[in-house]
Amino acid sequence: MPSKPSAPKAPKAPSVKKSKVPETLRGFRDVLPDEQAAWEKMEDVMRSLSRAYGFGRIRLPALEQTSLFERGVGKETDIVEKEMFTFTDQGGVRMTLRPEGTASIARAYIEHGMLNQPQPVKLWYSETFFRHERPQAGRYRQFSQFGLEALGSEDPVLDAQVILMCQRFCKDMGLDVTVQVNSLGVPSSRKAYVAELVKYFKLHKKQLSETDQKRLIRNPLRLLDSKEPGMEELKAGAPQMIDYLDDESKSHFMKVLEYLDEAEVPYVLNPFLVRGLDYYTKTVFEVALTNPGTEEGASMVLGGGGRYDGLIPLFGGRENTAAVGAAMGLERVLIAAKAAGTLPDPRRRSEVFFCQLGEAARRKGLKAFERFREAGIDVAEAFSKGNLKAQLEIADKLKAPIAIILGQKEVLDGTIIIRDMESGAQEIVDVEKVVGIVEKRLLEIRARKAVAKEKVEVQPSV
Ligand code: ATP
Ligand code: MG
């Protein structure tokens, strides 16, 4: 006897395993809408400075052949030794996510025959870069730089101009900075200096940490950069590059300083400033806050650069193609500006807010809204809200002095309401004429505000 079929089981809901959504990678971050006002201000400053000083923008590829950085940045540098994101693609090509901009700039200058253009060729960039570093405050694995490069001239006025632009960039972001400067001379004078440096540190070898002993052998100049305990005192007695500079480098350096004096750029000489990259010659500099306030602020270099007369010839470009450049770290500039309270208010402000009431108004409103946008009037909206009170509350929050209200009745009549948010007064106007009338009202409101501000300013202080 066939067994009684058991009642069919209710199908089991397929078990969906809730896996955690992967988070951002270490050292990488999202830049959310609230931060955009600050970034936009910084972008405006970069653009206007670059335009004023005649720098043309270049956009660089994110990936380059690994050998570009190995040769251009130098094998003995932190970047090439341990910070590059390098991989081999499907075709077997070794490539690297750009860790800095100058090597690509030098490549582009040669590749596009820019040496046939009037010199110097001045270029600027604003790009993200990638370095595999230990993330901490102001140090990320993806970060952004504002870069400036003047290629094809050895004139010291260009060193001064690039330094000055870095200082002005910070100033326009509300930051008071001081520039540290030094000269590394040309390779021959530097060689003589390094020999003396090695002699000096060999005498004190026992006092050097293991890392510094390695530096002594592989890249002795970097000893001047060392933050190991006890090095401050040792460095104080070390020979200084300035005493070994060749005449040409010395006079170049003096000129740079004279230009900086004349332009009133605050600077200090730092005989131990060497900078991380191999390609520098003559001038090197770093930009930091004049009054950092905290220890963290003090250790945070905002940017730096220098002259790199050897790089283009190294890449096979024309001999004697001199160049100078700088890069400012944008996240660090923002951290400093935030601490200094000089960032713009992230909240959106609009002079006009568009309200709609009812389905027909919403439909017609989409078109009416566009008329304002086309006329270049900054109008905010909340089309997803149906309730007038909620919309007027948003208008209030945005501090919009004018609200436009389109309701069922107005749609039928071909009219629209203009509401003065301060007095609550409303006028009904022809929808075809509303843009012109709002423009007029805005002018009146701005004039009223200017008069009110003037009155406050002339009031005698008590
Ligand atoms: P640091 O000594 O701080 O490592 P660096 O000498 O490696 O700096 P540069 O290659 O000269 O830096 O880059 C110029 C600027 O770019 C720095 O002064 C800094 O503001 C910024 N920068 C460099 N690396 C990072 C990073 N990992 N995260 C955020 N900003 C960075
Ligand atoms: Mg570094």
Overview of this protein structure:
With about 450 residues, the protein is α+β, with helices and mostly antiparallel strands. The chain folds into three domains: about 35-185 and about 245-340, BirA Bifunctional Protein, domain 2; about 190-235, no CATH class; about 350-450, Anticodon-binding domain (Rossmann fold), CATH 3.40.50. Helix content is about 40%, strand content about 20%. It contains 16 helices and 16 strands. It has helices at about 35-50, 65-75, 80-85, 100-110, 155-170, 185-205, 210-220, 230-235, 245-260, 295-300, 310-315, 330-340, 360-375, 390-395, 410-415, 435-460; strands at about 55, 65, 85-90, 95, 120-130, 140-150, 175-185, 265-270, 280-290, 305, 325-330, 350-355, 380, 400-405, 415-420, 425-430. The chain has an eight-stranded mixed beta sheet, with helices on both faces. Strands 13-12-14-15-16 form a five-stranded mixed beta sheet, sandwiched between helices. A three-stranded antiparallel beta sheet has the order 2-4-3. The longest helix has 25 residues, at about 435-460. It is elongated. It starts with about 30 loop residues before the first helix and ends with a helix. The mean pLDDT is about 90. Bound molecules: adenosine-5'-triphosphate and magnesium ion. Magnesium ion binds next to loops.
